[in-house]
Amino acid sequence: MTEADKALHAANTCIKLRPEWIKGYYRKGAALMSVEDYKGACDAFMAGLQLDPGNAEMEEVFMEAVEEMKKDHLARKGSKPSD
């Protein structure tokens, strides 16, 4: 099990035990970012924002995840052979 897998498992456990604690969603998002699962990271950060809409740090990392997801999408789109 990689460090990222361990971090994701710990974050999911945290969320299960304390779903109202924003830090669990932050940790899950960070773990997903490290494995380049940007969609999953966006979802985790958004769940945290739903708990605390005014959290500037969570909003910042959410926007970073969105930007990385866009870059990843464009890179994949550009690498497809055109017909």
TrEMBL record:
Q: Is-annotated flag, keyword Metal-binding?
A: no
**Spans of the TPR repeats?**
22-55
Where does the record place a coiled coil?
Answer: none
Please state what the protein is called.
Uncharacterized protein
Instruction: Please name the Gene3D superfamilies in this protein's record.
Output: Tetratricopeptide repeat domain
Q: Which UniProt keywords apply?
A: TPR repeat
PROSITE patterns (alphabetical): TPR
Q: Which domain of life is it from?
A: Eukaryota
